[in-house]
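Form P-L/3: holo structure prediction, ligand guanosine-5'-monophosphate.
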Amino acid sequence: MEALASFKKEISSPKKIFITTHVKPDADALGSSLGLANYLLKKGHEVTVVTPTDYPSFLNWMEGNDLVLDFSREDHQKSATKALNEADVVFCLDFSVLNRVNELGEMIRQSDAFIVNIDHHQDPEDFADFKYWSTEAAATCELVYELIVELGDKELIDKDIAECLYAGIMTDTGGFRHPNTTKNVHLVVAELIDLGANPSQIANWIYDSNSVNRLKFIGFAISRRLVVREDIHTAYFAISKKDLKKYQSRTGDTEGLVNYALSLDGIKLAALFSEREDGIKISFRSSSEVAVNKFAASYFNGGGHKNAAGGKSERNLKETIEKFENLVEEHQDELFDQEPVSSN
Ligand code: 5GP
Ligand code: MN
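OUTPUT (holo model):
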């Protein structure tokens, strides 16, 4: 049977469903998970949503947030494991390689459940029974919307679901500014607005909920931790553990910082290096013609989208930055010598 047909059959009667998404979920990861969860609940399924780690508090307004289990919390792990062991269907949203969900990855690989992967990242691993995957999609939320429509259930999308899905599309397009902002993006969000999503309310929940510490941290980072290398069209932030502690940084506080580096005139490659408990976390952003996902995958054990990717490093902060600058210098011809493109 064709994969779509077996998927439809799989969810045609009430099932035990497990939904997960990548570490440190963003609005697309959590919005697609909760948007889908709320839809599946309406269809009569039993649904558990598990995130591998915590996520920023500016996402807590999403319907279903209170029921999310965080696998990194000891008090949630047992029920999350039980839900995965008992699941008939497992949905993997907004990631395509199993190492993006920490220990849950191997558990999913071993699972006998029907595995569904809904995602828009490049270079997917082959672990799913049904893949609803397209790199043309700006957000996983766009794909979840399309899947619900394809299943003939558009009328089941209520305000709560529309809000979750709108949020992911809004943030993954950088507020409808990145090169992935297509006509289809606008058509889908127009539908979501019709179905109850309020754009300014959602933008307010996500973008206008800063703490004073976070704002001061951003000011500090821009004035003291930004390095601009105009000669190689590159700018980056290097944030130490001490910096994060000084500003009592919470999950999500560094989100968006890297965009300030990319906003500089003439800068085509931006990076944020932040020193965490388990090594250096790296965010890359680029102008349309520069492929940072390939760069992240080749040199920093990461991946992502053409113009927004991430990776990690086990070296210390100083050595990681030296490696980064050397690599950009060495590969500047292939990185920057491309024609600008209108979409990714
Ligand atoms: P961010 O910089 O916002 O953490 O991530 C940017 C994009 O790259 C997101 O789509 C995210 O899923 C992806 N990404 C971030 N870190 C990694 C990583 O370590 N591995 C892979 N494969 N993708 C990543
Ligand atoms: Mn996404």
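COMMENT: Residues 27-42 form the longest helix (16 residues).
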